[in-house]
Automatic annotation (TrEMBL):
Keywords on record: Ligase, Phenylpropanoid metabolism
Involved pathway(s): Phytoalexin biosynthesis; 3,4',5-trihydroxystilbene biosynthesis; 3,4',5-trihydroxystilbene from trans-4-coumarate: step 1/2
Record family assignment: Belongs to the ATP-dependent AMP-binding enzyme family.
The protein's name: AMP-dependent synthetase and ligase family protein
Lineage of the species this protein comes from: Eukaryota, Viridiplantae, Streptophyta, Embryophyta, Tracheophyta
PROSITE patterns associated with the record: AMP_BINDING (PS00455)
Gene Ontology MF annotations: (E)-caffeate-CoA ligase activity
Length: 561
């Protein structure tokens, strides 16, 4: 069989963009997008994406150019996940919580040619572009307008008056809908030459270090999308509620996944717990995703009521505390737990559920569900390695090491950062995640912490995740995060930051922990805050909390900040 070789017929580049073509044929008159009173079918969505892609090419976008998007979960944001790469460009979603300085740095780093901006974010976007130094080419700004929304800031004057104008020294060329109107619905979209061509550029959230530009290929996104649909057992025609920001790893690749299965995308511009319950009941939502903080907000909503129909909720980004899982599932949500990172574009380790676990007590089920689990089908391998020996740790659920991954769904690398790429993707064939975990006897992996979040007190390792889990089991605790506080005697001691939904004193929190944790793991300092700082993807920003802890004097408690 040695004479058999790949041909052009059997080695076509894999790309998730083909999902939209098929959806327009199979699910042509099915609803693709719902946003307030606006609805589209899959035929309409396909035509709109083709028209935008053709307009981008007409405006000079070439293969490999970077086109950035700064927008909420609105229809245009969803369409651009297809339209931008269909023009041959690389899609760069920017998170909506970043400040103008950071956005400006990212736009310059990736040499973005165009920037689509939700009008509600126009002030910060124009500020970002205006910060470009003289002589550095600025991206062309195009506005995504939505006159029906009550949220956000509006530019002075009408959208029509802003077209082909200059604001704060920034040229505003046209609007998104103008591209749709003038585009070609029969456009022959630009297909990748190689399936290893770049399709997306996403910057990491920067919770532990400076953001890096993660580049993914058409092949990786194709595989992770299929993988996620299979692992979550998503059927045809699901109703998907967009509580997860689409800019967060392209919505964990469910932007393309919903086209593959003909799903209905229910778009929400802003996340409010009450709006979630209303949308779930109004549209008969079947699936939604979000970080554990979203679960927490839903569970603690004063207007929370049991759902009419159960909803599958996929969470990830941090280990969900068992207490939060229990509260959410009591409302009718079926919680699944997955693990991924920007570098893998979606969920690659999931807590594959076993039927026999349903017979266990609820607390045990919640504890099992908080584990990250086993590799998904699309990942080649996952392991936990001892950082000194490079060997797998014991499968005892106790011995800790760094979680490592390998597979076709991994990133191509960090943009313009060969050193960072080499540090993450090493010559031994593994991608090193920076997450500390254990392997249980049944082969399931559980994260214990980020490598930078392990607290070493008196020679003992303290997992901040374990302490946080205990704090979350307190019914008056709304949010919790634990970081290291410098200590001259112990080296470091645990410092807890909490926000409350009830009343509790410093002593109440410390005594609660003492009853449930070894003495050395009990927080020595508790800081009460109205709300813990978060990244745009809902992760608690431990880097900021570490700065606070490092700069505070040693004391056993603090007033609210």
């Amino acid at each position: 069989m040695d004479q058999l070789k790949p041909t052009s017929a059997n080695s076509c580049p894999l790309t998730p963009l083909t999902f939209l073509e098929r959806a327009a044929t199979v699910y042509n008159d099915c609803t693709s997008i719902v946003y307030n009173e606006t609805t589209f079918t899959w035929t309409q969505t396909n035509r709109r994406c083709l028209k935008v892609a053709s307009s981008l090419v007409r405006l000079g976008i070439c293969r490999g150019d970077v086109v950035s998007v700064l927008a909420f979960n609105v229809p245009a944001m969803y369409e651009l996940q297809f339209a931008v790469p269909m023009s041959g460009a690389v899609l760069n979603n920017l998170n909506t919580r970043l400040d103008a300085r950071t956005i400006s740095v990212m736009l310059r780093h990736c040499e973005s040619k165009m920037l689509f901006v939700d009008t509600h974010l126009s002030v910060i976007a124009l500020d970002a572009v205006s910060r470009f130094p003289p002589g550095i080419r600025r991206p062309v700004v195009l506005l995504i307008s939505d006159h029906s929304d009550k949220f956000g800031e509006n530019l002075t004057g009408s959208i029509d008056s802003l077209q082909n104008s200059t604001v704060n020294g920034v040229d505003i060329f046209t609007t998104y809908e103008d591209l749709v109107e003038k585009g070609d619905p029969d456009f022959d979209w630009v297909r990748p030459i190689s399936e290893h061509d770049a399709i997306t550029l996403n910057y990491t959230s920067g919770t532990t270090s400076s953001p890096k530009g993660v580049v993914h290929s058409h092949r990786a996104i194709f595989i992770i999308t299929f993988d996620s649909l299979i692992d979550w057992s998503i059927p045809k025609n699901p109703v998907y509620l967009w509580t997860l920001p689409m800019f967060h790893s392209n919505g964990w690749s469910f932007t393309w996944g919903m086209a593959a299965v003909g799903g209905t995308n229910i778009c929400l511009q802003k996340f409010e717990a009450d709006d979630v319950f209303a949308a779930v009941n109004r549209h008969n939502v079947t699936h939604m995703c979000g970080a554990p903080v979203v679960l927490n907000m839903i569970a603690n909503s004063p207007n929370a009521k049991p759902l009419k129909n159960s909803v599958h909720f996929l969470t990830g980004g941090a280990p969900p505390p068992a207490a939060v899982v229990l509260r959410t599932e009591s409302l009718g949500f079926i919680v699944s737990h997955g693990y991924g990172m920007t570098e893998v574009a979606g969920v690659v380790v999931s807590c594959a559920w076993k039927e026999k676990w349903n017979k266990m007590p609820v607390k045990d089920r919640a504890r099992l569900k908080a584990r990250q689990g086993v590799r998904t089908l699309g990942l080649t391998d996952v392991n936990v390695l001892d950082t000194k020996s490079g060997l797998s740790v014991k499968r005892d659920g106790l011995t800790q090491g760094e979680i490592v991954l390998k597979g076709a769904c991994l990133m191509l690398g960090y943009l313009k950062d060969p050193r960072g790429t080499a540090q993450c993707m090493r010559e031994d064939g593994w991608l090193y995640t920076g997450d500390v975990g254990v392997i249980h006897p049944d082969g399931y992996i559980e994260i214990k912490d980020r490598s930078k979040d392990i607290i070493i007190t008196g020679g003992e390792n303290v997992s901040s995740v374990e302490v946080e889990s205990v704090l979350y089991s307190n019914p008056v605790v709304h949010e919790a995060a634990v970081v290291a506080h410098p200590d001259k005697f112990w080296g470091e001691t645990p410092c807890a930051f909490v926000s409350l939904i009830g009343k509790a004193s410093l002593n109440d929190i410390i005594m609660f922990c003492r009853e449930r944790l070894p003495h050395y793991m009990v927080p020595k300092i508790v800081v009460f805050m109205e709300e813990l700082p978060k990244t745009a993807t809902g992760k608690i920003m431990k880097s900021k909390l570490r700065d606070i802890a490092n700069n505070m004097s040693k004391r056993t408690g603090m007033s609210k900040m």
